Amino acid sequence: MDLYGSDRPDLRFDMKIQDVSDLVKDSDFKVFSGAVANGGQVRAIVLPGGAAKYSRKKIDEQQDYIKRFGAKGLAWLKVTDDGISGPISKFFGDGQALTQPLGAKAGDLVLFVADEASVVAASLGYLRTHFGHDLGLVDESQYNFCWVVNWPLFEFDEGIQRWVPAHHPFTMPNEEDVHLLDTDPHSAHAQSYDIIMNGDELGGGSIRIHSREIQEKMLKALALRRNAPRSRSASCLTR
User: Fold this and answer.
1) Which of 134, 162, 187 is the last residue of a domain?
2) Are residues 154 and 92 in the same domain?
3) CATH, residue 125
4) How far apart are CA 20 and CA 29, in angstroms?
5) Which residues of the chain have a pLDDT value below 50?
6) What pLDDT is attached to residue 232?
7) Three-state SS for 199?
8) Cα first-last separation, the chain
9) pTM given for the model
């Protein structure tokens, strides 16, 4: 998620997402420094040769699109022979402190998203895939497979403001994480796996919990108990 913004990454091209939070946390650009101060992050992707290819209008079209992921905006810089240009360039001098760590060169376009981690990942994950194809970086003749393992056991649902199973409540935790169900359950990871090809999920599964003791710990971590009021969807979990 940190590198590709997706749990089903297309690995046929590079263009990894990079964290610049530490580089901008004290900047005068309050969108960046404020996001970091509030516990969020600032991440970026570098589009090789994108400075000449993409106009401000084209970039703004993508800014409107990523609002569906919760992003409030899309910041950008174009790297030139003389430094940087773009709406936020005035906050970063010649831009070297940003562009050098990112490996951006003259002619490149750098896109930034500042927000909470899930919004940043979804936004830059989409932008990476969109521009990777648009720039012709994807080798369509290639089949690139990968396994995604060690999923978090839980994830926080912003809609209902509670922790829920990342997969389902019968997923076995990693053996070394079982003790975390009693102390820090949301740091535990699961014995689950997905098989990915070219950015598409082909299949997946998990080891099911086959221990009553561990299953009871799991349900306790989810605040599910025998006498809890039950909805129809939760009834099978609390009997």
Assistant:
1) 134
2) no
3) 3.30.1360.30
4) 13
5) 225-239
6) 40
7) coil
8) 35
9) 0.85
Same domain, 57 and 162: no
Contact in structure between 41 and 35 (CB atoms under 8 Å):
yes
DSSP E strands in 48-160: the ranges are: 75-80, 83-85, 109-115, 145-149, 154-157
Domain count, the chain: 2
Phi-psi region of 86 (alpha: psi -120 to 50; beta: other; left: phi over 0): left
Tens of pLDDT, residues 1-29: 999 999 999 999 999 999 999 999 999 99
Which of 12, 8, 1, 5 has the alpha carbon at shortest distance from 203? 8
Amino acid at 111: L
Which structural domain, as residue segments, surrounds residue 30?
18-134
Specify if 225 maps to a domain: yes
Q: What is the pLDDT of residue 228?
A: 43
How many residues are listed for the chain in this entry?
Answer: 239
pLDDT at 235: 38
User: Among all chains, which residue has been given the structure tokens 């981690």?
Assistant: 117
